[in-house]
Design brief:
With 130 residues, the protein is mainly beta. The chain is 10% helix and 38% strand. The protein has a single domain (4-128), classed as OB fold (Dihydrolipoamide Acetyltransferase, E2P), CATH 2.40.50.840. The chain contains two helices and seven strands; from the N terminus they run H-H-E-E-E-E-E-E-E. Strand 3 (63-72) and strand 4 form a beta hairpin. The two termini are 27 Å apart. The model has no long low-confidence stretch (mean pLDDT 95). The structure holds zinc ion.
Length: 130
Amino acid sequence: MSDLDKDPYVAAFPETLPFWAAAANGVFMLPRCKGCAKVHWHPRAFCPFCHDTDLEWITASGRGKVYSYSIVRHPKSPYVLAYVEIEEGLLLMSNIVDCDFEAVHVDMPVQVQMRATPEGRHAPVFGPVR
Ligand SMILES: [Zn+2]
């Protein structure tokens, strides 16, 4: 469990704290602008569409589909880098996990998982819908 209060990234971008705190509990939150009602990614201090700073947090569905991907064939730890189109209409760069990488395909339905990062935070990755 990370100590978000001492995390240098969170200290530099305190507006992201609600995201990381929810992620640590396995919950995928997205910021939504109260001005234009659009959801955006990544979390930031203002809406990238209308620049309003009045934002709120919503719980994402966690569902999406693979938009594009690449299998990175690292000899020790291969992984799948992908853009996932989530139900909220956003593209996220993430990883596809918990499956045979050769089975990954465009439009593959996926479900979010919040995974620990080497920095001690939790971030969204996606696995196949079971
Ligand atoms: Zn907006």
